[in-house]
Design goal:
85% of the residues lie in helices and 0% in strands. The chain is mostly helical.
Length: 123
């Protein structure tokens, strides 16, 4: 009963009779002002989150881009096409247009594959 009376009287004065203004009450008591600021700023959870998580991620963004993202981007978007272009120029020299030479290349490649499989013990 005491709890209800302690809570009911201020609630009645603030919200029903409007005898006391919440702004004036908060301004007149520094401890209420601190509690109001703490609750108004949502326990400072957003500030903590931005400082720790968002700030931390933004701090590691530069080295991450420099040492991981750019090398992967270069390798996949420039290195692989250059590799295939170089391989194409090399293979193009092997293609003579003479069927017997091309069949000889195919047999040599097949023999190499069989030799590797035998050395690995697969067959």
């Amino acid at each position: 009963m005491v709890t209800i009376a302690v809570v009911a009287v201020p609630a009645y004065r603030l919200y029903i009779s409007h005898r006391t203004q919440p702004e004036q009450l908060i301004a007149s008591h520094p401890s209420l002002k601190r509690i109001h600021d703490f609750l108004w700023n949502r326990w400072y959870i957003d500030a903590f989150y931005n400082k720790v998580f968002a700030g931390g991620i933004l701090a590691i963004r530069g080295p991450l881009v420099r040492f991981i993202e750019r090398p992967i981007d270069y390798t996949l978007n420039e290195g692989v096409p250059k590799l295939f272009g170089t391989a194409n120029r090399g293979v193009k020299k092997l293609q003579t247009g003479i069927l017997s030479v091309n069949i000889l290349y195919m047999l040599a490649f097949l023999g190499l594959v069989v030799l590797i499989l035998l050395l690995l013990g697969v067959i």
